[in-house]
Design a protein that fits this description.
The protein has 11 helices and 15 strands. The strands form 3 sheets. It has a 7-stranded mixed β-sheet with strand order 7-6-8-9-10-14-15, sandwiched between helices. Bound molecules: (3S)-3-methyl-2-oxopentanoic acid. (3S)-3-methyl-2-oxopentanoic acid (1QQ) binds next to loops.
Length: 392
């Protein structure tokens, strides 16, 4: 899985000194196993590229950033374990993660309690930054991203009237995203919400919900779920004869959905907080570094993870200009780092970012992508359909 050294540090739990050598340990808690690994593996790639990129810039003086990876698995218990290990054993200065909002609602309170800054790179449910003073995110929330995509669907097909909604009811992100989608549909006088169907992230067969929906003649189907269930749902909708537009949320915003829905993914619209075609110089630098290492275009999850590591790297660099990091206790360093990162402005692959005092990301541009699959259904990409500027 690449070059991340698992930290086997022999530190005692004494609170000083913070740093036992010339490296600053940054925790990376992503799903490498279970269904959320479809996101977590892309996230890890982005984080790894960032560590090399920012260490090469040499802004940390005599220090280097060292990523310490813990696999969160795809459930709450795995995320809690990963956070505890990173905080207490690995004595990290901060944490990037976890993968799912469903996991964050359990794991983030542990970091909050311990005074460890967390920058989420893929948590988009409502309420994540509100989990505490040490919790922020670079992954824009569903309320910022989802409504854009409904408007884009209408721009592609102005005749859309009847909209059906599916959501995975056992997942916090999916519940949160569907609320925003449903609100955007209800608020648009041209649209009628004809049915809301509930699924589970563990479901593989959606025939009953699909039959009930197709009998109502939808013009647009909007899906909030994770990649495996969402991908299978898309495939089965097409297999059962649905020909209208499909709009997927953040759950299908990964190239890892392509092997699940294959040629049936073609044409699916996706709400995005990042599109690799963005020509901004920092995105070009990121894309070049990513492509040099992985021989493929980065996806949103990789870009967001890169950005989260960037926020830590640049904040540590700024702090190191006025403080001797080695002289701070671990608790002092974590607190100073949290204060510093919330106050900063960052030129990132996602555009220029900053945070509200609560830790919610402020980001200017959002995108709608459309999946374009090769004829054999083996490869695909997200073609940029629309860039939307958000007023803040
Ligand atoms: C969340 C998400 C998932 C779709 C991706 C990790 O956005 O759980 O918040």
């Amino acid at each position: 899985m690449g070059a991340i050294a698992l930290a086997l540090s022999s530190c005692t739990v004494a609170d000083t000194p913070t740093i036992s050598d010339d490296t600053l340990p940054l925790g990376v808690a992503f799903a490498q196993t279970g269904n959320a690994a479809l996101y977590g593996q892309e996230s890890l790639q982005g984080a790894q590229v960032a560590a090399v990129f920012f260490n090469d810039q040499g802004n940390l003086g005599s220090y280097r950033l060292r990523l310490v990876l813990q696999d969160t698995g795809s459930d709450e218990a795995g995320a809690v374990n990963a956070f505890q290990t990173l905080i207490n054993r690995d004595r990290v200065v901060g944490i990037v993660g976890p993968t799912l909002s469903q996991q964050a609602f359990s794991a983030d309170p542990i970091a909050e309690q311990a005074g460890v800054p967390v920058v989420a790179a893929s948590n988009t449910a409502r309420g994540i930054p509100q989990l505490g003073a040490f919790i922020s995110r670079v992954s824009a929330g569903v309320e910022a991203v989802a409504p854009t995509a409904i408007a884009a669907a209408l721009a592609i097909d102005p005749k859309i009237r009847r909209v059906a909604v599916f959501f995975a009811q056992d997942d916090a992100f999916s519940r949160s995203e569907t609320e925003i989608f449903q609100q955007a549909i209800r608020e648009n006088p041209a649209l009628e919400l004809i049915t809301v169907q509930q699924t589970q992230t563990t479901d593989t067969n959606f025939q009953a919900q699909i039959n009930a929906t197709l009998s109502l003649n939808p013009d647009l189907i909007v899906i909030s779920g994770l990649a495996a269930d969402g991908g299978n749902l898309i495939r089965q909708l097409r297999e059962l004869g649905y020909q209208g537009l499909i709009l997927g949320g953040n759950g299908v915003n990964t190239v890892n959905v392509f092997p699940v829905c294959r040629r049936f993914c073609n044409g699916v619209l996706v709400a995005q907080a990042y599109n690799p075609e963005n020509p901004a110089p920092m995105n070009v630098k990121f894309r070049d570094a990513f492509e040099a290492q992985y021989r493929q275009m980065p996806s949103q999850f990789s870009a967001q993870a890169f950005t989260a590591v960037q926020v830590f790297a640049e904040s540590l660099a700024t702090l190191s200009q006025t403080r001797d990091l080695g002289q701070l206790s671990l608790a002092e360093l974590r607190q100073a780092l949290n204060d510093q990162l919330l106050g900063g402005t960052y030129d990132t692959p996602l555009g220029e970012l900053r945070f509200t005092p609560e830790g919610e990301v402020l980001q200017r541009y959002f995108y709608v992508g459309q999946i374009e699959m090769s004829d054999d259904g083996q490869t695909g990409k997200f073609r940029l359909v629309k860039q939307v500027e958000r007023q803040q």
